[in-house]
Amino acid sequence: MGIISRGFGGRRRESSPDLPPGQYLTHDFPVLSAGPTPRIPLDRWQFSIITETGEKHTWNWDEFTALPADEFTVDIHCVTKWSKLGTTWKGVSLDTLMADVESAADYAMAHSFGGYTTNVPVEDLLDGKAWVAYEFDGEPLHPEHGGPARLLIPHLYFWKSAKWVNGLRMMPEDEPGFWEAAGYHMYGDPWSEQRYHGD
Amino acid sequence: MVDTRWETKTARTLVLDVPEWPGHLPGQHVDIRLTAEDGYSAQRSYSIASAWPSDGGGTVELTVQRLEDGEVSPYLTDVVEKGDQLELRGPVGGWFVWREKQPAPVLLVAGGSGVVPLMAMIRARGLARGRQPFRLIYSVRTPEDACYADELRRRVRDDPGLDVHFVYTRKAPDGWPAPPKRIDVAVLNTHGWPPDFQPDCFVCGPTSFVETAADILVALGHDAKKIRTERFGGA
Amino acid sequence: MELDGNALAGDLREVFAGDLTAAVFTCAGCGHAGAVATLRVFQPAPGLVGRCPSCEDVVLRLVRTPDRVFLCLSGATRLELSLDGE
Ligand SMILES: Cc1cc2nc3c(=O)[nH]c(=O)nc-3n(C[C@H](O)[C@H](O)[C@H](O)COP(=O)(O)OP(=O)(O)OC[C@H]3O[C@@H](n4cnc5c(N)ncnc54)[C@H](O)[C@@H]3O)c2cc1C
Ligand SMILES: [Zn+2]
Fold this sequence. Notes:
A: 199 residues; mainly beta; Sulfite Oxidase, Chain A, domain 2; six-stranded mixed beta sheet; five-stranded mixed beta sheet; 2 helices; C: mainly beta; five-stranded antiparallel beta sheet; 8 strands; globular; binds flavin-adenine dinucleotide
C-alpha cells in the first residue's frame, strides 16, 4: 500500500461490526453505471425465462405487476465497498416467477436491457432469496437504480442484482456474466469477501 | 510537493518534485492516489500543466480546480501543504498530446480546468520556440475564473503566433462586446482556424463542453480525425 | 459520469509496456476503428468499461484489484499499436 495522505479522510463513511468484511456504511444510494442509462417504456418492457430446452415464459408489464408481490426490507452490499442497511423494496419473488417453469438447470444467466449479464446459481434465486423488484422506498424504481425493474439478490454482492433486468436464461453449467468474465468472482458472497476471481 | 500557488480563488497549482521523473509530453496526465489512515483510498487523474524540461529545474506542475462536494480536489486545493508527499503514477497518455514536430497550426479549445493540458502545450511551444500558429479559445464562467491569465497575456505579447480568445458563460468583463454565452458556432468559426488550414484541434474540459465543441468543429468542416478530445467528467 | 479512454491510460500502462490510448481498436460489433482514447468510459462502476463511440457496444473491460489488473478485450476484433511509440 502507498503512503498515507496526511489529513485525508475521504468521502464520509462509517465502519460497523454488522457489515461484511471490508465494507463501509453509506446513507445515500450511490449510482454505479457501466454505460448509458436505458429508458424502457413500460409498454415495451417484458421479462422472460428461457429454459435449457428452449421453453419460454414471458410477462409484459401488466401481467408482471398483477402477480403477487412482496414488500421487504434488506441490506445491500456493493463490491465497491459501500453497504446500505434496511432498504425497502417491492417486487415479485423468483419463487413466483419460476413456479411453472420446468427446468433442471443449476445456474441462470440474468440478462438486462442494454446488454448486461450476470450468472447466479438457481438455488440462490429460490426460497425467498431473490426478487424482481420494481419499487424502492415506496416509489417506482428510478431508471438510475435499474427501473422499471431490477433483480434483487441481497445476500450476494450487488452487481448480481442486475439493473434493467429483462430475463433469465437457465444453464446446466455455470458461465461468467459481464463482470465475472472481467475478473469478478463467479459467486460473490460478501461475507466471505468473494470479490475477485480466485478470492 | 515543493511549492504551490493559487491561479484563481478555487484553482491551485501544485509544484511537485518527482524523483526519477522521465520527462513528459504536453497533454499527458498523472494519476494521484490518496490513502486515508484506515487504508481507504481514492484515485483521480490530473493533467500536467508544465512543459518539460521546466524552467525551475526538474519539477512537474498540476493545476487542480476545487469542486465543493468533491472527494479529492478539495484535499489537493486546501489541505495538502508544501513538504507533503503525494503518491502518483505517470506520466501517462500518448494520444492527447502535442509534439513539437507536428507542423500544422493548432486550435486549442478549453472549458474550465480543461485548460490545464492545453497550457502545457502552449508552454512547450514557447520553450521550443515553435513556429506553428496557436490559437486558444478558453471558456470560463467569469473573468475571475481564468487560470494563468497574466501568463497568457504575457505570452500573447511575447510568443509570436499565439492568440487567445476568452468566452465568458456567466459574467463578462466590463466593456466586453458580447453578453455572457456558451461556446457556439460563431466563436469557433471566428476565432478558430478555417478547416482548409487543416489544424490539429485539441478540445478539453467537462464532458458536455467537449461534446458540444467537438460537434461544432465537425459541423464547421474539420476532419474528425484531426480533433483530439479529453473529457474531465462532470454532468 | 462519462469520461473517455484517456482516463484508462494509467491502468492500461500497468498491463502494457507502452501507452495504449493511442492504439487503434476495431469494434467487434460494428467494425468502427478509432483510438482507444476515444472510447466512452463510464464511472463509477466495479471496473472501467470502454464503449465504442459509434455503436455503444462494450469494447473493453478493465478490473483492478489491490494486487492484479484484469483486461477483457472481447469487444475488439483487433488492436493496432504503432511501434515507434507514437
Ligand atoms: C484525463 C483527466 C485529466 C484531468 N485533469 C484535471 C486537471 O488537470 N485539473 C482538474 O482540476 N481536474 C482534472 N480532471 C478531473 C479530476 O480527475 C477529478 O474528476 C476532479 O478533480 C473531481 O474529483 P473530486 O474527487 O474532487 O470529485 P468527485 O468526488 O469525484 O465528484 C464530486 C461531484 O462532482 C462531479 N464532478 C466530477 N468531476 C467533475 C468535473 N470534472 N467537472 C464538474 N463536475 C465534476 C461529480 O459528478 C460529483 O457530483 C481530469 C480528469 C481526467 C479524466
Ligand atoms: Zn462499434
